[in-house]
Predict the 3D structure of the following.
Amino acid sequence: MTVIVCVDVGSTFTKAAAVDVDTGDLLATGSHPTTIGTDVLDGVDAVLAQVARPDVSEVRACSSAGGGLRLVVVGYERAVTAEAGHRVGLSAGARVVHVSAGLLDLEPLVAAQPDVILLAGGTDGGNAEILLDNARRLAASTLDVPIVVAGNIEARDEVCSLLTAKTVLPTANVLPRIGVLDPTPARRTIRQVFLDHVIGGKGLSRGPRFPAMVRGATPDFVLTGVELLADSGVGDVVVVDVGGATTDVYSVVTPDAEEAALRREVVEVLWRSRTVEGDLGMRWNAPGIVAAARTERLPVPAGLEDAAARRAADPGYLPDSDAARAADDALAALAVTVALRRHARPDSGRGGKDLRQVRLVVGSGGVLRHADPARRDAILTAALTDHAGGWLLPARAPTTVDTHYVLAAAGLLAADHPVAAARLLDNALRTTVHNPLHRTSTGPTTSDNAK
């Protein structure tokens, strides 16, 4: 038996899953509040103790602690290269905190406090004037953050020479041709920036042990897990992860070829993608849920605004009554509904997604993991019956909840243990789908080690 423990160091909780990578069996899970106030390894060690086994061969981790990766996108036209960079940044697991189009205004960029800048602009062989001008402005600034250069490849050497005093990471153009989006090279480079400059540079832990353990940003590996789930027989899938600070939506959708040709856009739709809603969080950004719901003209229960303010003032708050749990459920239902509207609606500026053929909807996040089945169904059903939202809803998709934290774990295992990672997803995310998942195991509990 070969056992790997996969750890997700989140903004609120640190989770661990021990997996037999010979069989894909989930052996044990654990959870502990993330110890961001001291050393994140304190929380990591606590969950490792919960899943302790004598046969663990390796520990792998992903992280969104400390706010994750704050990315600023600098592009040419807002509807073209800036939008392309925005979509690529989200797919790479970053939190896009500012997007600049055209000639760069440094003041809002500096105010956004980025961890990394994605500098894009122009198709290959196209206009390079604004890309070069923006490189000059960044070179003259006092900013000391890595710059990923992913614009017109014919201007790349000149751009890099202008930025010799900065940390520069050149990669392929995110928009090599109009209508063609190439996210993989930039996504890979942003992941490396996260490892080198964020995990190692935010003071999350003393010494080299934590940076050596972390493979990348949690959302990046969750997207990998979602892609594996879709490709392993489920088909089109949507995942909604309701967190303390953000609500993330991941989708893998197979476009109809004829429809895709008819609606070909200036910036190609990423059919495997993630969007992050930084104003929709169950704790730090709970008031943002209420504000967004009102903007979307969704009904807000009486007293929910006060409940949201309480949660933002005390992010460690845990509901201790039926009324408090009902308020959490109401916030979660609104967060899921708004996040799905923004992710899929054609006028969202993100390309829009037709989700009618989705075969499985997966919920994630503490509010869903800790809710009973009836509460989970109510939270997800609120969004899946949202016919006033202007988006194409899944027509007949069943729902399930990632109660064992396996999406991130599968993503961490996918590169070198793809069969085990697929079986892990199959066993843990059991539900009835059009092409039923093969079921071979009853799965473990979430609290105790398997004996």
Q: What stands out?
A: Residues 236-358+366-401 form one domain. The chain has a mean pLDDT of 88.
